[in-house]
Amino acid sequence: MKVNGILIDDTFAEAFGMAGTGVIITADTMKWARIAATTMAGFGTSVIGAGAEVGIDRELKPEETPDGRPGVRVLLFGFSPEAATSQLKTRVGQCVLTSPGSACYAGVESDKRIGLGQGPRFFGDGFQTAKRLGKKRYWRVPVMDGEFVIEETTGVVTDAVGGGNLIILGNDRAGLLTTAEAAVDAIGGVPDVITPFPGGIVRSGSKVGSKYKGAVASTNDAFCPTLRGRVKSELSPDTVAVLEIVIDGLTSKSVADAMRVGLKAVIDTGAAKGVTRVTAGNYGGKLGQHHYKLRELLP
Known about the structure:
Layout: E1 2-3, E2 6-8, E3 12-26, H1 30-41, H2 47-50, E4 53-60, E5 71-78, H3 81-96, E6 103-106, E7 113-115, E8 129-133, E9 136-143, E10 146-151, E11 153-170, H4 173-187, E12 193-194, E13 206-208, E14 217-219, E15 241-249, H5 252-269, E16 275-279, E17 290-293
Parallel strand pairs: 2-16, 6-10
Antiparallel strand pairs: 1-2, 3-5, 3-6, 3-11, 3-17, 4-5, 7-11, 8-9, 9-10, 11-15, 11-16, 12-15, 13-14
Helix pairs in contact: 1-3, 4-5
């Protein structure tokens, strides 16, 4: 079907179940909270190659954080709570503990908990101290600019979703990128989701498998403009570029909401920027239990 001059494929995005957790990072200023969060999220694009998918959910006002300072909520997704715990320990220890003035608190509330400060506390070399406030336990780790405060655990949910997606095609590469940026900005207003790739956009969409032994994924040749004529292409003759937005969320509803606002942004702005078509990536419904039909997400 065509909406506002853009062809919307009658297809669906296929997504997978994941474990999702999160932290709230605070600092003396938003600048430093953002620096710590961005550093922690670095190299958190695809769970296949990076071990976890990590991104900033949103910035928090001082009245929204446990210690009354500016903060940033970071979400982390892995294939299991154990995988998420390992990534959380490494990323907090290397990227948050080290950042000037930082503190780190639980960013997801759930009955199921995983370790947050249980690893980084040992950096205190025996000088760390514990403090309990209500039902929560915190560690105070001495560092060179004072103390690093970190909550002992954070929540984890096992019904999170990874791999919601929109694939956007166009006849103007710059206009396509501008449109994808608008979609990512719109998705940024949806709580409990992240778009883990650089700037929320991925140009190297992948297919499962490869001709090379050991490679679990390879370029999505059907959507590569330079391979038109050499493979069974999905592209029309006027398509010059394709970009994908991948969405992870703590709930299936949050992923659907994010896809809905992203699709609306594309429809609202895309035609004038050379966007010709929107589709979604799936594996015929055989791999992921979450299916998001584009026609049901139209504005």
